[in-house]
TrEMBL record:
It comes from the Archaea. It catalyses: Endonucleolytic cleavage of RNA, removing 5'-extranucleotides from tRNA precursor. Residues 69-93 are annotated as: Disordered. Consists of a catalytic RNA component and at least 4-5 protein subunits. This is Ribonuclease P protein component 1. Gene3D superfamilies: Ribonuclease P/MRP, subunit p29. It is an enzyme of class 3 (hydrolase). One of its GO terms (cellular component) is cytoplasm. It comes from Halanaeroarchaeum sulfurireducens. One of its GO terms (molecular function) is ribonuclease P activity. Pfam families: RNase_P-MRP_p29. Its main location: cytoplasm.
Length: 121
C-alpha cells in the first residue's frame, strides 16, 4: 500500500518530517523536525537542538509527504487538494497532511499491521 494522505496513519511515521500545529501545551506548538522514534503515546522528533518527545494525545501534527517519501502514488487514493501541495526545496512536490494525534494512539506495529480508518484534513 502506497503512502498517501489517506493512508498516512496506517504507515510507519519514522523518517517523515513533522511539525506540531496545535497542542494543549502552547510550548510545543512549532516543534518540527524528523520523526526518529514512536511509542504507543509519543513521537520522538529530532530537531537541531536534539530529540524531543511529544505526546500524541492533545497534539495536532502536520506531516510533510514528498514524492520520495510516498514512492509511486499512481492509482492509489485520490489526488491531494491543490491548496495542500507546494514545491519542495529540491523540486519535489510536498503534500502537508494534518492529523489529530489521538488518531495515532496505538502501538505502532498494531496501527501499521491492522490499520485504522483515517479522517485526514
Amino acid at each position: 500500500m502506497a503512502l498517501t494522505p489517506e493512508t498516512l496513519v496506517k504507515h510507519e511515521l519514522v523518517g517523515l518530517h513533522v511539525r506540531v500545529v496545535e497542542s494543549t501545551d502552547p510550548g510545543r506548538v512549532g516543534i518540527e523536525g524528523r520523526v526518529v522514534g514512536e511509542t504507543m503515546r509519543t513521537l520522538e522528533i529530532r530537531r537541531e537542538s536534539g530529540v524531543v518527545q511529544v505526546p500524541k494525545a492533545g497534539t495536532t501534527f502536520e506531516f510533510a509527504l514528498t514524492d520520495e517519501a510516498a514512492g509511486a502514488r499512481e492509482g492509489t487514493g485520490g489526488p491531494p487538494k491543490p491548496s495542500d501541495t507546494v514545491a519542495g526545496s529540491d523540486g519535489d512536490d510536498v503534500t502537508y497532511v494534518t492529523v489529530d494525534g489521538a488518531r495515532l494512539l496505538s502501538r505502532p506495529a498494531y496501527r501499521t499491521e491492522n490499520g485504522v480508518t483515517t479522517l485526514w484534513q
